[in-house]
Specification:
Elements: H1 38-42, H2 49-63, H3 68-77, H4 82-95, H5 100-115, H6 119-128, H7 133-140, H8 145-160, H9 167-180, H10 185-197, H11 201-208, H12 212-218
Helix pairs in contact: 2-4, 3-4, 5-7, 6-7, 8-10, 9-10, 10-11, 10-12
Length: 230
Amino acid sequence: MAGRRARTGRGWDASPPRTGDDAAPPRPRRGSRRAESPADEQASPPRDESELAREICLRQLAVRPRTRAELAGALAKRGISEEVSADVLDRYDEVGIIDDAAFARAWVSSRHSGRGLARRALANELRRKGVDGEVATEALGELDEETEAETARALVERKLRTARGEPDAVFRRLVGMLARKGYPPGVAIRAVKDALAAQSAEAAEFAEQIDADALADAEGEPERDSRPTD
């Protein structure tokens, strides 16, 4: 038929498929991943151990400050050699990224104000984090006995608002609470006695019968020492 436009593309007049060497390679589907050749694998050398160690440290420090011992432990768990670990951590020491003294001071301040922990409990925490004994002692020295006693009284007064039971039972619970936070028996007993004396007539009468010094001696209160315990 004259004037009828020839059909193109797929259909009765479509060109036959190409064969042999002239055939074009199939086009990859959209979204499909090309398989890596052996040459590609050789183009990706193994990562440098020092680079990996630095990455591990920075990832740890992004969460919160860490001591040198904590970072060394994290590197060991990832299989980093002691030599590379020491080199990386020494460099971090030099530039101030690791500072155990600053860490200890911040830890003591934060844990005392936030959790009400006393020096004995704080010393144990610093020891578990690998802080050197002398460094820990210096940081703990910034928390004096008067501040510690004031914190103990504040803790007791807050707990006493919701405490229920006979005065002797309340007394034992509150002294135990302070003991778990690391307060020496003498500080704990005096703090609870003073708080009970100001609570009610019944509690004050009970408090009058408490001999704080005798009870502290009976508990075997050790000499005040802020050094980390073993």
